[in-house]
Design goal:
The chain is an alpha+beta fold. The protein has one domain: HIT family, subunit A, CATH 3.30.428.10. The protein is built from three helices and five strands. Strands 1-2-3-5-4 form a five-stranded antiparallel β-sheet. It is globular, with a radius of gyration of 14 Å. It binds guanosine-5'-monophosphate. The site of guanosine-5'-monophosphate has 14 residues, from strand 2.
Length: 130
């Protein structure tokens, strides 16, 4: 099912990319819960994570590891939290969020609205650690 993430993957809509391989893309969430909040998506159009094949599901989680390690190194956080929600965008994605407290991964909290410049700076910092 095509969604806004298909357009991001195709490069038709801009994003702040942090990492990519032939099957996956990692980019900054435009309205993060905490600065350094990254979305990891498979390039294949699938809505629900548990409709992925076992191999595709394992590959997606493997893809998150270097991204999470880079967030760990580049952001001031205790650790990186992972979450799967998917109620807004119908394309599988894993949220990676640098945590100072459990409140940083509270999805009912108001989101941030950083400038493009701040997002570009954070994306570069994360890329520099991959
Ligand atoms: P979920 O589907 O897991 O509930 O949330 C989707 C996430 O995608 C939200 O955190 C939202 O801020 C993010 N998001 C929605 N549209 C865009 C977009 O066009 N660009 C980027 N970078 N993130 C988006």
């Amino acid at each position: 099912m095509a969604s806004i993430f298909s357009k991001i993957i195709a490069g038709e809509i801009p994003c702040h990319r942090v990492y990519e391989d032939d099957k996956h893309l990692a980019f900054l969430d435009i309205n993060p819960l905490a600065m350094g909040h990254v979305l990891c998506v498979p390039k294949m159009e699938v809505d629900y994570m548990y409709d992925l094949t076992e191999d595709a599901l394992a590959d997606l989680w493997k893809f998150t590891k270097p991204v999470a390690k880079a967030i760990d190194k580049s952001m001031d956080c205790l650790r990186v939290g992972s979450a799967v929600i998917g109620l807004e965008v119908p394309h599988v994605h894993i949220h990676l969020i640098p945590l100072q407290s459990v409140e940083d991964i509270n999805f009912s909290r108001p989101k941030l609205n950083p400038s493009k410049e701040d997002l570009a700076d954070i994306a570069q910092r994360i890329r520099d650690h991959i």
